[in-house]
Write a structure and sequence with these properties.
This protein has helices at residues 52-66, 92-98, 141-144, 148-160, 184-191, 194-199, 221-231, and strands spanning 2-6, 9-13, 23-28, 70-71, 81-83, 104-107, 112-118, 122-128, 133-139, 168-171, 202-205, 216-219, 239-241, 266-272. By secondary structure, the protein is of the alpha+beta class. It has one domain: 4-Layer Sandwich (CNF1/YfiH-like putative cysteine hydrolases), CATH 3.60.140. The strands form three sheets. It has a six-stranded mixed beta sheet with strand order 1-2-3-14-7-4. Strands 5-6-9-8-10-13 form a six-stranded mixed beta sheet. Helix 4 runs parallel beside helix 7 (221-231). The longest helix has 15 residues, at 52-66. The chain is globular and about 55 Å long.
Amino acid sequence: MIACAAGEVEYLRFDRLGQEAAVSHAVFTRRGGVSAAPFASLNASISTGDEPAAVHENRHRMAAVLGLPLISTRPVHDDTVVVVRPEGTGHAWVDRLRATDADAMITDASGFGLFWAFADCVPILLYDPRHHAIALAHGGWRGTARAIAAKTVRAMSATFATKPADLLAGIAPAIGDCCYRASDAMLERFHANDEAWASACFTERPADAPGNDGPGTYLDLRAANRRQLLAAGLRPECIEMAEICTGCRRDLFYSHRMERGRTGRFGVAIGQAS
């Protein structure tokens, strides 16, 4: 990934996606905003307890970097994929979208950026250069256990005639298996879905392993989502995965798990200019 800055705002871009002139994207760090501790400083989420005015300013700064207004649905850790297309004028359709429950957004429309705020879950960005279609998926452990990455690819194929082999993908920073011990409920949920179980990445770690949260089974969410994309037909060379754990790099990103819920969310966006 490429480190970038616009004024005080720091963000990352994927190498291959960054070469596509038609699409704009950014994975924002926690640096360059106005939020006070414990949300310091570029918190993108209004639901954390942060001051709404600070979050509004932070999002304004992120939208300025993308060069597009930001829109989103309400992620609920499920596997619903929604097609995002403007309906009418004004903010009515945006308000309806915000009230929609979904953990993946796909569109071939331009003039806005698909946007979510993250703090350990896996942000998955997709771009179809042939059909000028984009997607942003929210891969928490529950969504990953329902194969959200693979379902997003299939939705793009069904809606835009996307060929998986044409897709470019970016898997942004998320919590790594160094910090993410799996519960019995996680194991059971993955095991209940054949597709997710086939791509799951669990490892057993002893108590003395570096970075461990005790002995047990650890989950690599980033690798699991990469496997789902490969199984869905993406080419390995077209998938770029950030080797950054949000739990380890709390100087750069927020981590809900490692900061025990008292923290912010970093923004991720992808869009196409009109």
